[in-house]
Design the sequence.
């Protein structure tokens, strides 16, 4: 298992098909240009799906409309930048090939992408998750349209407690 702990959230991902962009030299070559990345990636061979996961501890942040907009903007930036790195791999660009060499396997054409932002919150914020999720999906939807049908993309925000129930690799 590849255990990743960030923001008080633990993931136990299969080691052979999981990676972190932040550990890739190829990512470090571009991140100084305001490029961001999702915290963890895992390819599920059975489902032919690459999960790109962001982990955020939002439990100490006051619940204001401005803070929610900031969070959505940050999540969309991380997701769209990560999408560009994945597309570079799928399109066999020079930099995309560097990524694939570093992770040690080729991302198959036809891979579905699931962008999951797992947010750790206090109970009083949980009631706002529907609007947070909708705001994220709305801002991310143009990218889904741009790449359809070339690549199937799903994106959502989920509370940490719900993520533990839904995914066996979230602890």
Sequence:
């Amino acid at each position: 298992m590849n255990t990743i702990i960030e923001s008080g959230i633990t993931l136990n991902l299969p080691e052979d098909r999981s990676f972190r962009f932040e550990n890739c030299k190829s990512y470090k070559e571009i991140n100084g240009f305001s490029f961001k990345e999702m915290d963890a990636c895992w390819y599920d061979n059975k489902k032919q799906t690459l999960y790109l996961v962001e982990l955020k501890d939002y439990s100490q942040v006051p619940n204001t409309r401005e803070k929610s907009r900031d969070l959505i903007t940050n999540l969309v930036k991380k997701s769209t930048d990560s999408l560009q790195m994945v597309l570079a791999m799928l399109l066999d660009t020079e930099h995309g090939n560097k990524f694939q060499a570093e992770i040690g396997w080729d991302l198959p054409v036809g891979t579905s992408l699931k962008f999951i932002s797992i947010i750790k919150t206090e109970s009083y914020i949980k009631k706002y998750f529907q609007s947070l999720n909708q705001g994220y999906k709305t801002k991310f939807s143009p990218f889904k349209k741009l790449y359809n049908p070339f690549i199937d993309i799903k994106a959502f925000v989920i509370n940490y407690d719900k993520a533990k129930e839904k995914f066996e690799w979230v602890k």
Q: What stands out?
A: The mean pLDDT is 90. Residues 24 and 102 are 6 Å apart (CA to CA). The longest strand covers residues 49-57.
